[in-house]
């Protein structure tokens, strides 16, 4: 079968070493209740569930799903799920695509495509710091309303 040239280029294999480092880094934070490295339902990711004590009562789950590739492409997806069945989501991405520049952000509340073009550091630690700072601001806003 011929390759579909409309598909974006492959992101390459998952960088398991970086995912392990990310999981270790997140495990040091009080923000998270549970960190899973490559769980069965997401074998290409680290999934970090937030401690729900940081959120008002209507939030039933908040988590990060982080995928990092040997090409240094990545996808960091954040989701809040509510008792109402609604969700609030956003995503920081770095990968070849046909909708934005390689580095882009899919804004809340539904992480829609088209995203917003962005610039990210080449170092995973700096990317993670940016994401966690943005999410800390989001969580603080719950309590400042």
Short note summarizing the structure:
The chain has 145 residues and is an alpha+beta fold.
Task: Report on this structure.
InterPro entries: TumE-like (IPR045397). This protein is an alpha+beta fold and 145 residues long. The protein has one domain. Helices cover 23% and strands 30% of the residues. The protein contains two helices and seven strands, in the order αβββββββα. The protein has helices spanning 16-27, 124-144; strands at residues 32-37, 46-50, 59-68, 74-82, 87-94, 103-106, 116-117. A seven-stranded antiparallel beta sheet has the order 1-2-3-4-5-6-7, with helices on one face. A hairpin with a 5-residue loop joins strand 3 (59-68) and strand 4. The chain is globular, with a radius of gyration of 16 Å. The protein starts with 15 loop residues before the first helix and ends with a helix. Mean pLDDT is 90; it is low at 1-9.
List key phrases describing it.
7 strands; alpha+beta; 7-stranded antiparallel β-sheet; 2 helices; 145 residues
The topology string of helices and strands comes to: HEEEEEEEH
First CA to last CA: what distance? 55 Å
Percentage of helical residues? 10-25%
Q: The biggest beta sheet, please? A: 7 strands, antiparallel
Category by helix and strand content: alpha+beta
Average pLDDT rating: 90
Q: Note poorly predicted spans.
A: 1-9
- Measured by DSSP, the beta-strand proportion falls in 25-35%
Radius of gyration, in Å, reads: 16 Å
Spatial arrangement of strands, main beta sheet:
1-2-3-4-5-6-7
Helix run count: 2
Strand elements, count: 7
Shape: globular
Number of domains: 1
């Amino acid at each position: 079968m011929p390759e579909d040239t409309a598909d974006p280029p492959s992101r390459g294999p998952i960088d398991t070493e970086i995912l392990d480092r990310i999981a270790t880094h997140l495990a040091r934070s009080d923000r998270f209740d549970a960190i899973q490295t490559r769980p069965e339902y997401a074998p290409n990711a680290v999934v970090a569930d937030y401690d729900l004590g940081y959120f008002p009562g209507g939030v039933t789950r908040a988590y990060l799903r982080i995928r990092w590739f040997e090409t240094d492409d990545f996808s960091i997806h954040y989701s809040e799920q509510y008792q109402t069945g609604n969700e609030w989501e956003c995503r920081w991405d770095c990968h070849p695509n046909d909708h934005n520049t390689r580095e882009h952000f899919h804004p809340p509340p539904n992480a829609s495509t088209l995203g917003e073009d962005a610039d990210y550091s080449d170092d995973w630690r700096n990317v993670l710091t940016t994401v966690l700072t943005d999410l800390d601001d989001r969580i603080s806003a719950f309590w400042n309303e």
